C-alpha cells in the first residue's frame, strides 16, 4: 500500500523547486496559475443564467471548505480490497451491467468523436460508488462489501432516479430499450459543453489547490472518472425527458446527483440476497456464460457447450457468450 503522505511530500519538493525557477524567471507558479483558473472559470459560471447552477456553485464552495471534497479525492486513491474479485459468471447476475455491456457501444475513436454515451461512461459509475462506500467504511473492502457494491440497487437508482436516488421506493427494471435510447444521447450544444467543462475545470483546479501540488502528476484518474460519471448521468437525465440532446438542465441534474451521492452513506445499500445466494468467497464460480441482449438474463454454459448450441433466450432475444479470461 502506498503512503500518500510520503509521495506527496516528494512531489511537493519537486514542484517547490520548479516554482522557485519560475518565480525567478518572472513566470506564474503552478499555484498562481491554478488560482487564476479557478477565478476565471468561477466568474464565467457565476455570470451564466442557468437554472440550478447557483446551487451547484454553493455545493462546490461548501464541500471544498468542509474538507469533504478533499476526503473524497483521497478515498478515490485509497480504496482497495482484501478479498478476491468477482468472476464474470458472478457479475453476469447483474442485469444492469449485462444490458449495458450488450447494448452500449464500446469506447473507440468513433464514439468519442460523436460524443455519444458509451460503455466507458457507464463504467465510471463503479469507481465513484466504491469511493463513496470507502469514504463511509474506511477499511479495505471485504467479501460482503464487494457483494454490496456489485449487487445492491444503487446503480439502478442513480440511472433511473438521478438526484432522487435516495427517495424513490420502487426502481424500474433495466431494459434493452433504455440503453438503446441512452446510446443515442449526446452533447452537441457548445454552450452546454462549456458549462460541463467549466464546472469540471473549477473542480479540478480546486482539487489542485487543496492538494497543493500539480494536479497533472497525481490523482490523474480521478478527474476524468468524475467527469465521465457526470456525463453519464447527464445522458440518463436526457433519456428520462425523452431527448437525445443533452441540455444544461441535464448537466445540473448530474452534478446535483454527484454531490448528493458523495454525502450519502451508501453502505446502507445492501446486495440483493436473491442474486448473491449461491456466491461463495472460497469457491469462485468461473466459466463461460451467455447473456441475453434483450432481457439481460444469463445462462451458465456446461463444459463443451457454446452459444451456437442455443437458438435464443426464452424471451426470443439474441444470446451472447462472455468469457472469463481468468479461468
Ligand atoms: Zn432474454
Outline the fold blueprint.
Layout: H1 4-24, H2 30-46, H3 53-66, H4 68-78, H5 88-91, H6 95-103, H7 109-114, H8 119-123, H9 125-137, H10 143-151, H11 154-161, H12 176-182, H13 190-211, H14 222-240, H15 248-262, H16 273-276, E1 289-292, E2 298-300, E3 319-322
Antiparallel strand pairs: 1-2, 1-3
Helix pairs in contact: 2-13, 3-15, 4-9, 13-14, 14-15
Zinc ion binds next to loops.
Largest sheet: spatial strand order: 2-1-3
**How many structural domains are formed by the residues?**
2
Number of strands: 3
| SSE topology string | HHHHHHHHHHHHHHHHEEE
Bound molecules: zinc ion
User: Major beta sheet, specifics?
Assistant: 3 strands, antiparallel
Question: What do you see in this structure?
Answer:
The chain has 327 residues and is mainly alpha-helical. The protein has two domains: 4-276, no CATH class; 289-322, no CATH class. It is 56% helix and 3% strand. It contains 16 helices and three strands. The protein has helices at 4-24, 30-46, 53-66, 68-78, 88-91, 95-103, 109-114, 119-123, 125-137, 143-151, 154-161, 176-182, 190-211, 222-240, 248-262, 273-276; strands at residues 289-292, 298-300, 319-322. Strands 2-1-3 form a three-stranded antiparallel sheet, with helices on one face. Strand 1 (289-292) and strand 2 form a beta hairpin. Helix 2 (30-46) runs antiparallel to helix 13 (190-211), helix 4 crosses helix 9 and helix 14 crosses helix 15. The longest helix is centred in the middle third of the chain and has 22 residues, at 190-211. The two termini are 27 Å apart. The mean pLDDT is 89. The structure holds zinc ion (ZN). Zinc ion (ZN) binds next to loops.
Amino acid at each position: 500500500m502506498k503512503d500518500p503522505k510520503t509521495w506527496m511530500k516528494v512531489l511537493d519538493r519537486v514542484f517547490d523547486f520548479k516554482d522557485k525557477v519560475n518565480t525567478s524567471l518572472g513566470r506564474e507558479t503552478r499555484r498562481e496559475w491554478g488560482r487564476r483558473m479557478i477565478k476565471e472559470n468561477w466568474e464565467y459560471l457565476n455570470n451564466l443564467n442557468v437554472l440550478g447552477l447557483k446551487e451547484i456553485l454553493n455545493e462546490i464552495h461548501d464541500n471544498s471548505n468542509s474538507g469533504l471534497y478533499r476526503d473524497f479525492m483521497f478515498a478515490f486513491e485509497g480504496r482497495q480490497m482484501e478479498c478476491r474479485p468477482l468472476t464474470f459468471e458472478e457479475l453476469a447476475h447483474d442485469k444492469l451491467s449485462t444490458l449495458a455491456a450488450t447494448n452500449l457501444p464500446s469506447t473507440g475513436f468513433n464514439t468519442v468523436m460523436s460524443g455519444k454515451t458509451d460503455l466507458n461512461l457507464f463504467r465510471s459509475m463503479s469507481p465513484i460508488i466504491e469511493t463513496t462506500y470507502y469514504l463511509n467504511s474506511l477499511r479495505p473492502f471485504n467479501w460482503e462489501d464487494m457483494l454490496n457494491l456489485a449487487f445492491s440497487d444503487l446503480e439502478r437508482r442513480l440511472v433511473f432516479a438521478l438526484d432522487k436516488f435516495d427517495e424513490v421506493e420502487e426502481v424500474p427494471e433495466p431494459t434493452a430499450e433504455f440503453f438503446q435510447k441512452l446510446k443515442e444521447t449526446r452533447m452537441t450544444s457548445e454552450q452546454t459543453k462549456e458549462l460541463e467543462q467549466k464546472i469540471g475545470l473549477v473542480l479540478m483546479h480546486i482539487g489542485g489547490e487543496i492538494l497543493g501540488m500539480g494536479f497533472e502528476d497525481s490523482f490523474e484518474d480521478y478527474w476524468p472518472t468524475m467527469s465521465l460519471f457526470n456525463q453519464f448521468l447527464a445522458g440518463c437525465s436526457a433519456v428520462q425527458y425523452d431527448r437525445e440532446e443533452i441540455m444544461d438542465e441535464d448537466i445540473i441534474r448530474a452534478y446535483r446527483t454527484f454531490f448528493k451521492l458523495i454525502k450519502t452513506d451508501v453502505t446502507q445499500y445492501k446486495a440483493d440476497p436473491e442474486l448473491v445466494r449461491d456466491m461463495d468467497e472460497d469457491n469462485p464460480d468461473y466459466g463461460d456464460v451467455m447473456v441475453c441482449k434483450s432481457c439481460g438474463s444469463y445462462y451458465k454454459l456446461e463444459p463443451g457447450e457454446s452459444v451456437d448450441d442455443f437458438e435464443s433466450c426464452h424471451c426470443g432475444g439474441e444470446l451472447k457468450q462472455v468469457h472469463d479470461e481468468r479461468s
